[in-house]
Amino acid sequence: MSIQVKFFASLRDELGRDSAEIEDAGDMKVVDIWQQVAGNQPFSGNILAAVNMEYAQADSPVRDGDEVAFFPPVTGG
Amino acid sequence: MIEIIDSPFDPHARLADYQRSLQSVGGYGAEASFTGYMRDHNDGERVTGMHLEYYPGMTERHLQSIADEAARRWELLEVLILHRVGDIAVGEAIVLVAAWSAHRADAFEACRFMMEDLKSRAPFWKKEQLDPGERWVQGNTPGYK
């Protein structure tokens, strides 16, 4: 198992990919996943996150097999 | 009912069709609806088209949670949320939200609540086509002034 990561909209364009796979290192949080996929770019207020399709925070726990998504502020409707 | 739609739809026809299908005829005394359309301008620039992206799975789940929350807060008989994705032309409907209730206050307020929550929280992203170029829309403006 591993952690599947998805990127959407302008964030996908900036990172240059739509997904990534992270090995579960144990006791991981959303911000740890972000640092692995985005390098030096800080996890700012302009980046939203979801774990298993529910909104999550920087310190939300991530477990093996989870799907984590990162995306910019939403603009539907 | 919630639905993601990937081709043009007629909001008034869909509203009429859905209302005809309801089993609660006689129970509702009010229906409030809102339709959002694609404008030909935004932020001082002419917009010629739009691509609407979503997060399959999370978007449907979030729209259902909006409908469920509205049903908890107000006395509603039915809720309908339709939202377009994909390539959208100027003038086409993007979103339809409707609520049926015994009385107007619940229908009006639930409709507004669902629309505002959708605009601020539902995972959709708009990319506008300009002449020339394209750009991601950076954020939605607040609905309440």
From TrEMBL, chain A:
One of its GO terms (biological process) is Mo-molybdopterin cofactor biosynthetic process. One of its GO terms (cellular component) is molybdopterin adenylyltransferase complex. Coiled coil: none annotated. Keywords: Nucleotide-binding. Pfam families: ThiS. InterPro entries: Beta-grasp_dom_sf (IPR012675), MOCS2A (IPR044672), Mopterin_synth/thiamin_S_b (IPR016155), ThiS/MoaD-like (IPR003749). It comes from the Bacteria. GO terms for molecular function: nucleotide binding. Belongs to the MoaD family. This is Molybdopterin synthase sulfur carrier subunit. It comes from Methylohalomonas lacus.
Automatic annotation (TrEMBL), chain B:
InterPro entries: MoaE_sf, Mopterin_biosynth_MoaE. Pathway: Cofactor biosynthesis; molybdopterin biosynthesis. Gene3D superfamilies: Molybdopterin biosynthesis MoaE subunit (3.90.1170.40). Belongs to the MoaE family. Heterotetramer of 2 MoaD subunits and 2 MoaE subunits. Also stable as homodimer. The enzyme changes between these two forms during catalysis. SUPFAM superfamilies: Molybdopterin synthase subunit MoaE. This is Molybdopterin synthase catalytic subunit. It is an enzyme of class 2 (transferase). It comes from the Bacteria. Its EC number is 2.8.1.12. Keywords: Molybdenum cofactor biosynthesis, Transferase. It comes from Methylohalomonas lacus. One of its GO terms (biological process) is Mo-molybdopterin cofactor biosynthetic process. GO terms for molecular function: molybdopterin synthase activity. It catalyses: 2 [molybdopterin-synthase sulfur-carrier protein]-C-terminal-Gly-aminoethanethioate + cyclic pyranopterin phosphate + H2O = molybdopterin + 2 [molybdopterin-synthase sulfur-carrier protein]-C-terminal Gly-Gly + 2 H(+).
